[in-house]
Amino acid sequence: MRTRISRVAAALAAASMLGGSVVTGLAEAAPTTAFGSCPDGSVPEGAGVQCAVISVPMNHAEPDGPRIDLTVSRIAATGERHGVIFTNPGGPGADSLAYWAQRIEVMPTELNAHYDRIAVQPRGLRWATPLRCASETAEGQQVSIGGGSRDEIKKACDAAQPGYLDTITTENTARDMEAVRAALGVERISYLGTSYGTYLGAVYASLFPDRVERMVLDSNVHPDWVWTEEFAQQQAAGKQRLDDLFAWIAEHNGEYRLGDTALRVYQNWVRLVSAQGGGWYANLTPPPASVADLPGELPEPLAELARDGYNGTMEQGGKLQNLVRTLISGGSSAQVPLVGATAVATYTRSFWPTFARAMSDANADPANVQRLLAIEGATATDPTGRFVFSAITCNENAVPGRPELIGAAIGTIASGGNAMDARADLVRAGLSCGSWRPIAEPVPLTGADLRVKPLVLQSRHDALTPYEGGPAMARALQGSLITVEGGDHGTFGRGNPAVDDAVLTYLRTGQVATTHAEQAPLPSR
Questions:
Q1: Cβ-proximal residues to 521 (8 Å cutoff; 6+ apart), any chain
Q2: Helical (H) or strand (E) element with 357
Q3: Helix, strand, or coil (residue 21)
Q4: CA separation (Å) from 481 to 195, 212, 247, 478, 506?
Q5: For residue 520, what pLDDT is reported?
Q6: What's 46's DSSP letter?
């Protein structure tokens, strides 16, 4: 679950201090925390970022046991400091160190002026004691952490870092954040979380409510869907957002010449994906139409199921696990430029004009995919992100698999039904983690002891965190919900004055005066 953030509003300029709720700034940070240069390649140059390495327990249940090192980035407030704000941009498995630096130009000026901005690189990722699982059969080769036998995976991981895999959970990541807060000498923190970062923030708030000043949760994980149902619900939400995208392109057919209806744009999309070698990915997201009407071959595991049925063998199960992991990740190992760029465009409406132009370029010249590759690369992640994603979602998955739904998926495929429905059923069947059973109980979420209610932002047509997650998170934490029209994944800082003003007012006063905002305007073309 990936994201971006921020831009301006004038509301905070009139503020002087946060009154009685001023938090301790980093000028009073613990003297043992030394900030200096950041790891090579971790942050943009010239953005004023400093980094520190902070040691935390590998297992917070054993504070005197082995320790790991986390890298923390900081950008100091440029004006009078009103507080300290931590962030997590999502995933699980997204790098955090460069988050603030990459968004200085689009963040509200008042936020940059009045807050020290902190990002803690989550455990398991590069620059935070990366999770390494060496294979016995191929020395130095990382095993596939998602799916398969947990016993075999754990054996490979423990060979390099005994016990570490079991500690890669949201709770431990939240406890890491608390350890960093204490190391910095900060009494209370504000927090901005997006996508998976909303769930991490909710866990932190539930464990350490007295350490929270303000909390903004943007594009929310549904607390009751962790994790299987969250990924299953993404299928329908993703299809809806793609239909919206194709309809928008059709409305601008005079400029892009890709079709004057959503279905015609989609048919052009299918043709281009197939020409690029995308195969079955061209069948995933039709506007009202059936799989039987579309070109392209089914991937081998589904073709076998549709032909022969599910036999429950380990070989067939392994093939399905691989397929489901690929589907959940957007097909990163198999997708072609247009599929990758399409996925990014569904997350962020501001990409729509650029995406439409890139698709138009490829339509005119199939070899012209440079713009598509640039869009696809906007959300590229380090391989350790995939390992952490699988470790967290399988270690703490609270939604049991339903293997009987494999049969429903077969029936959908065989009858020419909606491929997205089949994909959701395969996810709900529990194939993502294979025989990996959870080892951690999710932290019960509550906002009862928070000083100030969280602010919850949620797009109505979010493709990655479906809308239902926003109201559910607001209920769980007794927060204030603002529904944002459209489907941007991450709503704050997109040049939307209504949203930005609401967030800045909340940070300044703790008050929320609105429940609704229109979507951000598209950038001028």
A1: 495, 496
A2: helix 352-364
A3: helix
A4: 15, 18, 28, 9, 12
A5: 93
A6: T
Q: How far is Cα 499 from Cα 489, in angstroms, rounded to an integer?
A: 13
pLDDT tens by residue, 123-137: 999 999 999 887 655
Measured between alpha carbons, how far is residue 268 from residues 70, 235, 280, 286, 290 in Å? 47, 21, 15, 11, 16
DSSP H stretches of helix in 116-195: 150-160, 170-184
Stated length of the chain: 525
DSSP per-residue codes, 374-436: HHHGGG---HHHHHHHHHHHHHS--S---TTHHHHHHHHHHTT--HHHHHHHHHHTTTTSTT-
Give yes or no for a cis peptide into 227 (omega within 30° of 0): yes
In the block, which residue shows the tokens 């589904």? 302
Q: How far is the C-alpha of 431 from the C-alpha of 32, rounded, in Å?
A: 46
CA pair distance 320, 434, nearest whole angstrom? 9
The sign one gets for the Cα dihedral 98, 103, 105, 108 is negative
Q: Is the dihedral of CA 472, 477, 482, 485 positive or negative?
A: negative
- Provide the CA 225 distance to its chain's centre, in angstroms: 15
418: tokens are: 């909606």
Cα–Cα distance measured from residue 474 to residue 303, given in angstroms and rounded to the nearest whole number: 42
| 410-413: long-range pairs with CB below 8 Å, 24+ | 410/305, 410/306, 410/309, 410/310, 413/291, 413/298, 413/302, 413/305, 413/306
- Give the dihedral sign, CA 34/36/40/42: positive
71 with 43: CB under 8 angstroms? no
Q: Which two tokens stand for residue 448?
A: 């009862």
C-alpha gyration radius of the chain:
23
Among 213, 22, 190, 202, which Cα is nearest to 111's?
190
Which neighbouring-strand residues pair with 218? 194, 457
pTM of the model: 0.88
Beta bridge partners of 55: 69
Is-contact 62 50, C-beta < 8 A?
no
Q: What is the pLDDT of residues 401-433, one digit of tens each?
A: 898 898 888 777 666 666 678 788 888 988 888
pLDDT in tens, 54-75: 999 999 999 999 999 999 999 9
- Identify the H or E element spanning 458: strand 455-459
Cis peptide before 223 (omega within 30 of 0): no
d(CA 364, CA 58): 54
Nearest to 384 by CA among 142, 56, 69, 120: 142
**Number of neighbours of residue 253 by Cβ within 10 angstroms:** 15
